């Protein structure tokens, strides 16, 4: 019997079909994000988001830092699935994440930026591009807009059909955590200490409310009055005490995370740490723990190393717990579940 016999050909064919079917089943079980996910369904998606976001950032320069933080919180609580965007005002059946998230200290401009991007996407390609992808693209664009690295964003995230305030507390790092505890939390999301330190470099922009670090500048560890955390530069501590003096009456008072170059995405965050200019206790902690300090030292000395690692870590952050394929939904609005 020669190679071309019908029986043999049929056997080969069924074998090929079987392999193909197995491959398809595997692909269906584990669809991956891809940079060209919307190539046919919404080819201008990235451009549409970029234009809307650039205009929003020009009008409200605090948009960038807020959106970057929003992306982080989205990905850490139930995966990057836009669950953080659901508004308590949309009357969901359970209190959504946003109701618990540092009691709504999440910045309004960031939500507005994503809502605008989504509205433009819906006008061009209704029901196609997820809110989770819109947020991932917006965060990427805004890092670049502040002078940070630009990187590719893999797409195809689907949105969550739920958002529950009770998921927030256990999934987000808090400023009073040790570096070791933060590393454990990041490890649970599949992120290494190196990736954690690179991502924490996001604190090179934006601001923190006084309540987040008040314990470091007033009556530190039960000491009287103006006692401050000795890890803080004394002059910086005094300046913070003055700026935050009225924070209990006006809880909106906030301080730049990076006092040296607050609006530029650069490596200054890491340079600040050994000088006692890290604002949050969690920032200071990264410098004290040798397994995280090595990376902080490297990034302080080498902006290229920081940018490369930050970009890679953002791509890994953007893949945490994503819903793909038939999981999740594509919401029509980002601030509501229906
Ligand atoms: C490592 C543990 C982290 C802790 C404990 C932490 C904690 C905080 C806190 C308490 C604030 C101040 C919020 C406010 O007062 O409104 C803040 C702000 C911020 N965080 Fe983090 N964060 C961490 C990691 C990250 C990561 C990984 C990112 C992003 C990749 C990030 C991005 C930001 C940004 C951009 C701001 C400024 C927000 C704004 O200006 O609106 N943080 N963070
Ligand atoms: C958030 O804080 C405000 C006052 O700062 C308070 O009125 C409100 O009840 C708080 N909301 C939640 C959900 O804790
Ligand atoms: C951190 O602060 C929260 C309340 O703000 C508290 O519940 C928690 O026990 C503190 N954690 C540590 C490690 O001190
Ligand atoms: C800075 O980091 C980059 C990227 O890791 C590396 O190629 C370069 O050699 C480093 N520069 C110095 C001066 O160490």
From TrEMBL:
One of its GO terms (biological process) is hydrogen peroxide catabolic process. This is Peroxidase. Residues 1-27 form the signal peptide. It is an enzyme of class 1 (oxidoreductase). Its cofactor is heme b; Ca(2+). It is found in: Secreted. It comes from Paspalum notatum var. saurae. It holds the Pfam family peroxidase. Ca(2+) 2 binds at residues 204, 258, 261, 266. GO terms for cellular component: extracellular region.
